[in-house]
Amino acid sequence: MKSIAASEYDCAVVGGGLLGASIAWGLAKLGQRVVILDEGDTAIRASRGNFALVWVQSKGLGMPEYAAWTVQSSDAWTGFAGQLRDQTGLDVSFERPGGFHLCLSEAELDARSLQMKRLHNQPGGVDTRTVMMERPEIAKMLPHIGPDVVGGSFCPIDGHVNSLRLFRALHVGLAQFGAAYLPNHTVTDIRQEQGVFRLISDKAEVRAAKVILAAGNANLHLAPLVGLHAPMLPERGQIIVTERVQPFLKHPVVTVRQTDEGTVMIGDSREERTSPEGMTTPITAMMANRAVRMFPILATLNVVRSWAAIRVMTQDGFPIYDQSTTHPGAFLACCHSGVTLASNHALTIAPMIAAGALDETELTAFSGRRFTRRSDVSQVA
Amino acid sequence: MFRRLPDKTDAGVVNFTINGEPRVGRRGDTVAAVLLLSAISPTRVSAVSGEPRAPYCMMGVCFECLVTINDIGNRQGCLIEVTNGMRIKTQTTRREAGA
Description:
Strand content of chain B: 25-35%
Number of strands of chain B: 7
Largest sheet of chain A: 8 strands, mixed
Order of helices and strands of chain B: EEHEEEEE
Number of helices of chain B: 1
Radius of gyration of chain A: 21 Å
Shape of chain B: globular
Number of helices of chain A: 10
Oligomer: heterodimer
Structural class of chain A: alpha+beta
Helix content of chain A: 25-40%
Distance between the termini of chain B: 33 Å
Largest sheet of chain B: 5 strands, mixed
Strand content of chain A: 15-25%
Number of strands of chain A: 17
Distance between the termini of chain A: 38 Å
Helix content of chain B: under 10%
Shape of chain A: globular
Order of helices and strands of chain A: EHEEHEHEHEEHEEEEHEEEHEEEHHH
């Protein structure tokens, strides 16, 4: 019988999107021998379609630990961006000027105000410094708002980044750290034998001491292979991009932001669909209409691109970080906010995995066990 | 620097203006092509950095050939054919929303 060779890698990360790349970068930085198994160019990849906010307000209603986790990541982002720049020379254009959620009617404003109050008052909550603002106060900071804007919320630690450049910086950095990147290696099976994981793809077999599942919505099928649970519920979002214009929007709004390169991105939709193909005119028209009511000068701009993309989403919308008890050394990471939480994934999650275990006190709320603890009705088939 | 190849001489004549000056082109010429022929450079400045730019890829990808056509700014000159009476303007200031 052929003996199992010593594992070629310390860590195998399944998924090369922003989440997988962030964790892999953090692991490689610590000297771990890392391999990333990724799908190919035709993968349904959230990392190439996202809106690129580093966003704090609105996060964590129903799970105060998520709000605290998000604040921690926002605070770590400047240092993270600096480390990427020092290593790769790439500036990911992280900015944290504070961000807005704008309301276009009194009803919207009341609902927003109530939501912010509930978020602030929940036990164990963290102070995100989010405040409600009336129209005149907003107009001082966003002089281009239209007459339909009645008010909104402002969080001084909201920001944004160039997410495509972040994606590139992580992969350039990974290569510099000596990590192996294997595209077109869709993992079909994972087995653990004598403490070594065998990751089987249609192309090759890779052996590693640890395995980290960071495959977005595909974690649903991969997690059970190592005794973990990842109930996912993908959503679809649509985005409109305008021509490049002189910078005029100093603060990102949750649905409208101007990128460092001058384009304006508009994204204001959520659909329960799993295919990124086929945009729907009623939704893009609604998005454009709301954006123009927020900033009437947008009506003068040419639209140059639009797309639909799939959001990675867990069933309750909160991240899952977990480690297997049946397959020691197997870890799971699922989350919607691959941009916002990138700094946490690189600088907090990766060191824990490198050391061998997730910190139970810090991350216990994020375990996938929360889904199976509930009544049978909520369990996924 | 650019000159016309001799293969399209019977395509018909088109009259238009660049920055208010009357110009003559051939039917089928793109706006970016007649700008290159006119030797006007730069044809725009970057909206963010203000750097000078001119037509480059000529196939709709790089967005360097942006000019104002019939009062609409930031149009891709390489994807639009000149027509009689067309008013082409180079963009000497950074493109502004609402301007």
